[in-house]
User: Which sequence fits this backbone?
């Protein structure tokens, strides 16, 4: 900032080496003051100094363009560059990118700031920013800090649309609402000056879609809750982008309607007996519909069927009664088999004395295991008779 000191004849002004000072007398531009000390006469007039730092590069003044056109002395201190309507300018200071000039704009920079160069890029050759230039813009952060002078009425905006497409995704580039390009995974930049640009991301990986809590009436008017899960994958990104604003909502509705039809045409007993019916019916109904929109149905299955409390209680009772009946049948079957076995054994012993005696000895062995002392009188025959009597 220039230093101003009052003297008895006027003002003494000191201008630093990196400054450019403009002297105004009675609100009218008079001259440019170079670096050094200046004595300005003017006790009976109004003197003003408007100073600029040339290290800031840009001649920032609301009336800069008018001043350059009206005063040759100021114009000689500046580089004045115009950028055509179909190009952008890249301002380099000492070979380092400093800023971006918009189409149709005028750039004013101080010559004494150092080595300055304006490189121009034609927008008619394409809107995509070269990768090396994009890296330079990101490194210097010039995309977010614009101080370049443009024509009055021009609309300032971020000049470069930066977009990162993650792995497993695809980017759909829209220019002024029209789909222009599909972008694979990577970093991209596009000149969005005078355009409305947007990159929409679509996930190409398999996505699980849950159709949960569906309250549906069966054919026999039983209300059940069904939870369905499905695996979806985008196979035609352009078709999805052009036909559906929300492809997941579209797939959800298709699965929901197919699920209701699959359940509503079967009774509860039929659904419980054939649980795969819902899976196959839903898949058969929605596969073609989803493929027409660029979506592949890779799997579908019922997670669970939730019955109302009273129906669940009744079914539990039915199952309990069925199991009890099955157990009773098994018990009677075993009793019949045991009785038949005893009958066959008795018939065999009736016609075979030796077999009868072996059976008696077997019974005697079992009884004797529980007797501590046994006195035998009268031989083996008396033993067998008395043992049988004790039993």
Assistant:
């Amino acid at each position: 900032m220039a230093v101003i000191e009052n003297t008895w004849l006027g003002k003494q002004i000191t201008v630093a080496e990196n400054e450019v000072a403009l002297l105004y007398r009675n609100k009218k531009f008079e001259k440019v003051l170079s670096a050094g000390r200046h004595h300005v006469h003017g006790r009976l007039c109004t003197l003003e100094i408007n100073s600029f730092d040339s290290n800031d590069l840009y001649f920032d003044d609301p009336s800069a363009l008018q001043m350059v056109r009206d005063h040759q002395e100021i114009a000689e201190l500046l580089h004045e560059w115009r950028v055509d309507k179909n190009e952008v300018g890249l301002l380099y200071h000492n070979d380092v990118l400093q800023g971006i000039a918009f189409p149709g704009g005028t750039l004013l920079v101080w010559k004494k700031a150092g080595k300055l160069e304006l490189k121009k890029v034609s927008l008619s050759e394409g809107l995509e920013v070269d990768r090396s230039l994009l890296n330079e813009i990101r490194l210097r952060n010039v995309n977010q800090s614009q101080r370049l002078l443009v024509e009055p009425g021009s609309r300032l905006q971020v000049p470069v649309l930066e977009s990162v497409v993650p792995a497993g995704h695809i980017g759909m580039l829209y220019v002024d609402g029209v789909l222009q390009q599909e972008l694979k995974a990577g970093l991209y930049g596009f000149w969005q000056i005078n355009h409305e640009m947007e990159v929409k991301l679509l996930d190409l990986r398999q996505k699980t879609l849950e159709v949960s809590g569906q309250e549906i009436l069966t054919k026999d008017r039983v209300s059940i809750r069904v939870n369905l899960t499905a695996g979806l994958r985008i196979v035609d990104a352009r078709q999805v982008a052009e036909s559906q604003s929300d492809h997941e909502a579209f797939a959800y509705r298709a699965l929901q309607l197919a699920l209701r039809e699959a359940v509503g045409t079967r009774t509860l007993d039929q659904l419980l007996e054939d649980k795969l019916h819902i899976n196959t019916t839903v898949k058969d109904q929605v596969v073609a519909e989803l493929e027409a929109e660029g979506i592949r149905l890779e799997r579908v299955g019922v997670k669970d069927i939730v019955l109302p409390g009273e129906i669940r209680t009744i079914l539990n009772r039915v199952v309990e009664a069925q199991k009890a009946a099955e157990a009773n049948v098994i018990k009677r079957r075993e009793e019949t088999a045991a009785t038949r076995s005893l009958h066959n054994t008795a018939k065999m012993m009736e016609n075979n004395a030796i077999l009868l005696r072996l059976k008696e000895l077997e019974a005697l062995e079992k009884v004797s295991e529980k007797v501590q002392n046994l006195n035998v009188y009268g031989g083996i025959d008396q033993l067998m008779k008395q043992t049988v009597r004790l039993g």
